[in-house]
Design a protein that fits this description.
The structure is a single chain. The chain is mainly α and 176 residues long. The protein is built from 7 helices and no strands.
Amino acid sequence: MFRSLAIGVLSFPFSLLAFIIGWAGRDLRFGVLAGAVIFSGFFFAAVISLFFIKTYSYAEAAFPVVLAILWSLALAPFSFGASLFSAPAFIGAGLMLGVCMAIGKRYQMPRSWLIFPALVFLYEMLPINIPGPIDDTFALTGSASVVLVQFMRRALPKIIKNSHKDDTDGDLKRNY
């Protein structure tokens, strides 16, 4: 987890360095492009290293949301006046991935449940946008559906079982 965080933090100085070198070597547009490419490379590396974590804590399950907020702030200057990137959709995809990670950790679910929310997270991260909210709506609805199915199939039966076990302990009296 800390490896991903370190990669994410290191992306800022290296991006700034690439921007300065590109601007000095050619022009401002090339500097911006060089900085964006380096930042994207570091960000992809941070996200990919997240998926190779064997165990993670609940705080680390919140990391996709933090990455989404940082990425949205980094792309905000390039998104003004053009709908190249949807920050709310990306933060929502990060939230769905984080929820999926937390449910998976709590109820010892296989990591295969993370594939679809992770793909949606990566899709929303890219500054490629189909005009209109249709692609974001489909992607986030699919991710939310996976989280809901994951909750209904794994978490809800365990919650019901535990609450039923608590009711049969004799501590709670029923009034009919």
